[in-house]
From TrEMBL, chain B:
The keyword Nucleotide-binding applies. PROSITE patterns: ABC_TRANSPORTER_1 (PS00211), ABC_TRANSPORTER_2 (PS50893). Keywords: ATP-binding, Nucleotide-binding, Translocase, Transport. It comes from Pseudarthrobacter niigatensis. This is Phosphate transport system ATP-binding protein. One of its GO terms (cellular component) is membrane. One of its GO terms (molecular function) is ATP hydrolysis activity. The lineage of its organism: Bacteria, Bacillati, Actinomycetota, Actinomycetes, Micrococcales.
Length: 310, 259
């Protein structure tokens, strides 16, 4: 215990610190560099399409007329996927975290995680070869009985290769993402808050409404946004399932197209301005995803005061 | 608005492990009863069986009877949810709902039982409950602010306000001051003294001075060794337990010779 022990540095520990902080910094910078590089590539490559005269763009009416139907198509498919997947995912996650006996819960959690391991092309094949056929009678019924709603307007597709089928396939694909994230969040609910609710005479469901769901709300939103990210960008499943066409309001006719599938289907044979157009479409998809994520951030922080983080 | 509790031959198990053995105790209405004893002696476990909160822990079960004014809490067809709405609980660490405002925290339990409460009634109830918990003056200007923004002692009084808002028969307190500073502790102890005018209060505490200060009767729990069940050693007037206990173990404990 001499005075030198305060000043002499412990060589090994210091070096480890420096290496680690350097590695962490490099990793952080790399992410930014990659993101910036992708964004730059998209913008530079997209400029010719954005500035080209209208008649050079596919469809002959300019880039905007080309892009907006597939933007809408992308959003329709993603919204269908989320509308179906979110309630199911939250229900499954709650069942696993709060209702199921422990043994069943771990098995079920494993099965849900397995869903995420199936390659998207397999989902696409399943949707195109099996689901579309099985579901087309239901579309016929919808067209007959609910046809007065624009979204179920007939005549229904006989092949079943519609945007609704694509949305259903997408919902199965985003289900494991939302489920496993929500489940993790639900399991993190402080026992204290659950007991507080139970001690007031809450039933299990009331306890979940009172303690679990409010606590998990930001996490659920993040989970949905991650699911949305996948639904927006998913290519193979949509490309295989959807018999694409012009934008239509009806979900049960063939038609509509998503950005990702449009790019995938056309890119191999594209050249010149067409390549540029497709990359510009990719830029639009990138911007949509970015906007979605920022809105999600904003929604989460808006309620920070009540989040329990303080 | 308060009922007595009579416990007959109660055993508490965690799975096959007997945690608390053969407790019989009569808790008077409108009084403060303190449970003291060394850590792990089963006093908190036993407290939880008084409103069936032990059932939250997987594998926990009881044998025996707990009578609330003669009605067995463990009788066939008795819903633990109903039991808990009549026997409130305050926990070791303050646990207001972080996502709710102070006002909503107070109303949380009431809204469970009675969905349609008018705003006027709710205002009256919030004020009465917060006054009952000696918190009204400190929070009346910020009822819409989150409860988690209060200090620890204020949060604990908010939890008491939340418990009394549903007008329970009994209030159980599981070491309510163990996470609080001495001044907040004093505020809670004063409050406990006032609460016994209307409620039956049962409090678990590690702090013997606290038991001596707030309680009318004291029960001493002890454990023979690790892995052995906790037992009720002695139960009587607080004054007697602290000045002239019958059992040697009680005397050793209250005089600080062990535990």
């Amino acid at each position: 215990m001499t005075a030198t022990s305060l000043t002499s540095s412990q060589g090994a520990g210091r070096t480890g610190d420096k290496v680690f902080s350097g590695a962490a910094l490099a990793a952080g910078c790399l992410i930014l560099a990659v993101l910036f590089g992708v964004a730059l590539f998209l913008v530079v490559q997209a400029i010719p399409a954005l500035t080209a005269p209208a008649d050079k763009i596919q469809g002959g009416q300019g880039f905007f007329a080309y892009i907006w139907p597939i933007v809408i198509g992308t959003l329709i498919a993603a919204v269908i996927a989320l509308v179906i997947a979110t309630p199911v995912a939250i229900g499954v996650a709650l069942f696993i975290s709060h209702f199921a006996p422990r043994r069943l819960a771990s098995g079920l959690g494993y099965v849900v995680d397995l869903l995420a391991a199936i390659p998207s092309v397999v989902y696409g094949a399943w949707g195109a070869a099996f689901l579309a056929k099985q579901i087309s009678p239901a579309y016929g019924w919808l067209a007959e009985n609910m046809g007065w709603l624009p979204i179920f307007q007939g005549p229904a597709s006989t092949t079943g290769k519609t945007i609704l089928t694509a949305g259903i396939v997408l919902s199965v694909m985003v289900l494991p993402i939302i489920t496993s994230l929500s489940r993790e969040i639900f399991l993190q609910t402080p026992k204290l808050h659950e007991e507080a609710a139970l001690a007031l005479g809450a039933t299990r469901w009331e306890m979940i409404k009172m303690a679990v769901l409010p606590f998990a709300r930001p996490g659920i939103i993040s989970a949905i946004m991650l699911g949305l990210g996948r639904a927006l960008g998913e290519t193979m499943a949509v490309a295989l399932v959807l018999s694409s066409g012009a934008l239509t309001a009806s979900l049960i006719q063939s038609g509509n197209q998503t950005i990702a599938a449009e790019i995938a289907l056309n890119f191999p044979e594209a050249s010149g301005i067409k390549v540029s157009t497709l990359i510009a479409a990719g830029l639009v998809l990138f911007v949509i995803t970015l906007a979605v994520n920022m809105i999600a951030r904003w929604v989460i922080t808006r309620h920070k005061e009540f989040s329990g983080a303080n | 608005m308060s009922k007595r509790i009579d416990v007959k031959d109660l055993n508490v198990y965690y799975g096959d492990f007997l945690a608390v053995e053969d407790v019989s105790i009569n808790i008077e209405a409108k009084s403060v009863t303190a449970f003291i004893g060394p850590s792990g002696c089963g006093k908190s476990t036993f407290l939880r069986t008084l409103n069936r909160m032990h059932e939250v822990i997987p594998g926990a079960r009881v044998e025996g009877e707990v009578l609330l004014d003669g009605d067995n809490l463990y009788g066939p067809g008795v819903d633990p949810v109903t039991v808990r709405s009549q026997i409130g609980m305050v926990f070791q660490r303050p646990n207001p709902f972080p996502t709710m405002s102070i006002r909503d925290n107070v109303l949380a339990g009431v809204k469970l039982n009675n969905k349609k409460i008018s705003k006027g009634e709710a205002d009256v109830l919030v004020e009465r409950s917060l006054k009952g918990a000696n918190l009204w003056n400190e929070v009346k200007d910020r009822l819409e602010k989150p409860g988690s923004g209060l200090s620890g002692g204020q949060q604990q009084r908010l939890c008491i306000a939340r418990a009394i808002a549903v007008e329970p028969q009994v209030i159980l307190m599981d070491e309510p001051c163990s996470a609080l500073d001495p001044i907040s502790t004093l505020a809670i102890e004063d409050l406990i003294n006032e609460l016994k005018d209307q409620y039956t209060v049962v409090i678990v505490t590690h702090n013997m001075q606290q038991a001596a200060r707030v309680s009318d009767k004291t029960a001493f729990f002890n454990i023979a060794g690790t892995g052995k069940p906790g037992k009720l050693i002695e139960y009587g007037d607080t004054h007697t337990i602290f000045s002239n206990p019958v059992q040697k173990a009680t005397e050793d404990y209250v005089s600080g010779r062990f535990g």
